[in-house]
Amino acid sequence: MKLLFLIFHGFSESSGVSKKIYYQVKALRDCGVDVHFCYYDIDATGRRSWVVNDKKIIDLGYGKWAKIKKRIDFSPIVRYAKENQIDFTYIRSYHNANPFTIHFVKELNKANIRSVIEVPTYPYDQEYITLRSKIDLAVDKCFRWQLAKQLVGIVTFSEATTIFGQKTIRISNGIDFSAIRMKSMVNDTIKQIHLIGVAEVHFWHGFDRVIKGLAEYYKKEREYKVYFHIVGEAFSEREKRDVFEPIKALGLEEYVIAHGAQHGEALDNLFDSSDLGIGSLGRHRSNITQIKTLKNREYAARGIPFVYSEMDSDFDSRDYVFKEPADESPINIEPLIEFYHSKSWSPQEIRDSIQDLSWKQQMQKVINYLNAIKG
After folding, report:
1. Dihedrals φ, ψ of 4, to 5°?
2. Which tens digit of pLDDT belongs to each residue from 5-40?
3. DSSP track, 158-187
4. At residue 216, what are phi and psi to the nearest 5 degrees?
5. What pLDDT digit, counting tens, does each position of 194-204 carry?
6. Cβ atoms 77, 83 nearer than 8 A
7. Residue 65, exposed/middle/buried by CB under 10 A (0-12, 13-18, 19+)?
8. Most buried residue among 1, 26, 274, 353 by CB atoms closer than 10 A?
9. CA distances from 321 to 189, 204, 227, 312, 313 (A)
10. DSSP state, 201?
């Protein structure tokens, strides 16, 4: 099978989203698929182009016209797909349903090249909060049902059986175990606990609930010390205001440590000294009740117990998961302490419990679906 994997944005090895995409592409190739990876590139001089497997297929040039062409003219990609006898396209949604993307998929269909689109988060309307983004969303809402009609399926990490009227291919966010080092130490200090939240900080992560909970916890003298390590930058001014500014205002500088974005050995070391992972605690803010987040899987691959508030069928019944209510209440710290000390946690056992969530096994589900269509 020849598959064109398309993203409408740039690709950077330091980006969390890009890493996920890289692991998906790698998994498809490990499953025997001939993957042609297509992405949008802006070089150091500002020149824009479409790239497939690290080679330019079209030079869009500079300036505003290059930006416009990127959004409205996908003929170079269609031409490449035809010339290389592509069987399917796997398109990562950029929430950009419009007449141009619809025409693009129709042209592929004319060449008997069928398409699926991955919708990374569903539903996603509540994630749009700025005026500009709401305008973009309004366009997407006008055309996404029409775009879905041109597809043979929509890949989702939710439990939805249909999205925009199109049947879904339900998979879980996966893990490339070779890329994630398991936690190598277990904290045996009974008088302290270290929480870790790793994310580009959005409002739906709900880290502010932990900070408010710590503020309540430290209203009186505590012999048992709890620390919260935030690893990642704020996505916008909203997160700076709601998450990072209260740290000083509430007098929590000693207990809430903002590390910024960390990678590689520095991130591994932070996990080694941490005890509980903080997943999403505010998905209800974006009207999401069920989701299979990548972060939960990364924590499990690290071998660390963790906390979240949404519904995730892969983890809801695991004994190393602590579920918080999906509301705006401050996180009660004392039950977290009791949970952590309720048993001896084995990083290896936690990691071993999710071997079925490898990216290779998850992407094989997509391949099986496409093979059935091709057959």
Report:
1. -95, 115
2. 999 988 876 577 888 999 999 999 999 999 999 999
3. SS-SEETTEEEEE----B-GGGSPPP----
4. -65, -45
5. 999 999 999 99
6. no
7. exposed
8. 274
9. 21, 19, 19, 11, 12
10. B
